[in-house]
Design brief:
single chain; Rossmann fold; disordered N terminus; about 600 residues; 11 helices; 6-stranded mixed sheet; alpha/beta; disordered C terminus
Length: about 600
């Protein structure tokens, strides 16, 4: 097989070199190919050769070759070899000439929702559809003797082998009382499966039947099942079921990936006698599916930059470097200036970093993706990176989107300083997704907020990623006065000197001031309930609240952030810096 680089004919079109006799995995994962031209000398195409080619919409084949095209797909005689992974048709009917569907034939196409298979097909496995994450139905011809269906589930002809369950049929509980075999990859995409009841007819389970993502929360295993399952089990006998069977028990999956015995088989009242599914609705291709997490965007309508008290320097930076490029993109194109696509907001907690992110999304009229560390982290190896990739793929489909990472130091912690060995893989995936983000300038903005920027990986902070950083500090006296005035204007209160309250709350953040006002409200309500005093809040209520509520911002955090601003505390967690004990302006 030739390793010569394919020749580009036009943008998006790639031709396989003339001396190549075989197509392996050299094109796999390439997102720049829209059209692939194959010459007549090609003699073999490996399974899954075009997986990950998310933009590949069509093949072009020369006449006289071993392969031919039927309905846009590559055929080898009677075998469906490859379906374009980027073709956006939601439904596909396998042509009547097809007798066999090869493994990975559909290359994980994310747009397919329904596949109809004719009467002549007599060979296929779950691997044919692996990765088609929005597939909800595989229908079999009425007279097909090789396969049969029960709703979205595909069995072999005599119903003894489970062949495939589409991921978007979303099975929650599955009862398999008569199945003798679980075929290859038959459950690999079923991340929603919670309870699996295996019948006593089960004799064989394919090694990759469950894939890497299907892990039922509960397993019910009869006494006389003697086949091996690819899981780790622990119970009265202990051991791994792949080496030694442990029949006749109910098991539950724990966080360490081990199934532990929770009851005897004959004591279990299994709640279902047939398949139970959550039917999928007719929705656009997935922005989600990993671990049940859906990255659903929202439109922010209740926030504005003008509503934020103080932070005038910060708001000016945001207007000039984020809002203006979106409103006047032609001006920036004239001067060939790439605008910031990654912005890091850092500073003490409670100062409005999240509110600023929401206000930016509202100003841009963009879809807002608010992401917490728990939305990304997953106990299964590789799932965290998949969730992160899914998030960015979803955001890129929006006309304009803002991704906001809260507590970013939990996701972007410097490699080598993390206690988790997989953190490096997550950082690598994040760097890949941020790479080339300038191509989406004006349509995709990534914001991140952290209280500890020095703990971030330095690779994230270079220009083009999060090179543009904004310090969101404590509100000054004027900002504190404005916060008091705006909040007190919404409730019945006597004339109160807000400037005096601003002086009393030096070192408080915005959240602390909110808590002071809430405490004063509660004090006034209790006074009214006991019959003491009037029905309006007084300065005495706020004075009482100040005796109960102190600043939640630690002096250590302020010093660390001040040193980071001066460049005396570097990223990657380097805590060797000077002037550690000097006073921080604005905090006594």
């Amino acid at each position: 097989m030739s390793n010569e680089t394919a020749v580009a004919m036009k943008i998006g079109t790639v031709a396989v070199p003339r001396n190549a006799k075989e197509i392996g995995t050299e094109y796999g994962g390439r997102t720049d190919i829209v059209e692939l031209v194959l010459h007549s000398g090609i003699r073999n195409i490996q399974e899954g050769a075009f997986r990950g080619c998310t933009s590949l919409e069509r093949f072009v084949l020369e006449e006289g070759g071993k392969y031919s095209l039927l309905q846009g797909c590559i055929y080898d005689g009677k075998t469906l070899v490859a379906y374009p992974p980027g073709l956006k048709d939601k439904e596909f009917e396998v042509p009547e000439e097809t007798e066999k569907i090869s493994d990975y034939a559909f290359n994980g196409n994310p747009y397919l929702k329904k596949i109809v298979i004719g009467d002549e097909v007599c060979s296929m496995t779950g691997r044919a559809f692996l990765g088609c994450k929005n597939l909800s139905s595989v229908r079999i011809g009425e007279y097909n003797d090789a396969f049969t269906t029960d709703g979205p589930i595909v069995f072999n002809g005599d119903s003894t082998e489970l062949v495939y369950i589409p991921p978007m049929s979303k099975p929650k509980m599955l009862n398999l009382p008569e199945q003798e075999r679980l075929g290859p990859a038959c459950l690999a995409d079923c991340r929603t499966l919670r309870i699996l009841n295996l019948g006593d007819s089960l004799e064989d389970v394919a090694e990759d039947a469950f894939g890497e993502s299907c892990r039922p929360k509960k397993l019910c295993i009869p006494d006389n099942v003697e086949c091996r399952l690819p899981f780790k089990f622990a119970g009265k006998k202990g051991g791994n079921l792949a080496e030694k069977n442990i029949p006749g028990h109910m098991y539950r999956l724990y966080k360490d990936g081990v199934y532990r015995q929770i009851g005897e088989f004959d004591a279990i009242d299994f709640p279902m006698s047939e398949f139970e599914f959550e039917r999928s609705e007719d929705e656009e291709p997935s922005f989600s599916p990993f671990g049940g997490i859906k990255f659903a965007p929202v439109k922010v309508t209740d926030a504005s930059i003008d509503d934020i008290a103080g932070l005038e320097d910060v708001k000016t930076l945001i207007r000039n470097h984020i809002i203006l490029p979106s409103r006047k993109p032609e001006l920036f194109r004239t001067f060939d200036l790439n605008t910031s696509t990654g912005v890091l907001l850092y500073g003490p907690p409670g100062n409005g970093k999240t509110m600023l992110a929401r206000a930016v999304a509202a100003e841009l009229d963009a879809d807002f993706f608010s992401v917490k560390p728990t939305d990304i982290h997953n106990c299964f190896v590789g799932e965290s990176e998949l969730r992160l990739k899914c998030l960015f793929e979803t955001a890129r489909k929006s006309e304009r989107a803002v991704i906001f990472f809260d507590d970013f130091d939990s996701i972007g912690r410097a490699r080598g300083n993390s206690l988790e060995p997989w953190q490096g893989d997550l950082i690598a995936e994040l760097l890949i997704q941020m790479q080339g983000l300038e191509k989406h300038s004006g349509t995709l903005l990534v914001l991140a907020a952290t209280n500890r920027p020095w703990e971030l990986d330095s690779a994230l902070l270079r220009p083009g990623r999060f090179g543009f950083q904004i310090h969101v500090g404590l509100p000054d006296a004027e900002a504190r006065e404005t916060i008091f005035r705006k909040r007190l204007a919404k409730i019945p209160c006597e004339s109160i000197d807000c400037a005096y309250l601003a002086d009393r709350t030096e070192g408080y953040n915005g959240a602390d001031i909110e808590q002071v006002i809430d405490c004063a409200k509660m004090h006034r309500i209790l006074e009214i309930g006991s019959g003491d005093g009037g029905e309006k809040m007084t300065l005495e209520d706020l004075e009482f609240a100040l005796t109960q509520i102190s600043s939640s911002v630690s002096k250590r955090d302020l010093r660390d952030i001040a040193n980071y601003c001066r460049g005396e505390m570097m990223a990657d967690g380097d805590e060797t810096y000077v002037s550690r004990d000097q006073d921080v302006p604005g905090y006594n």
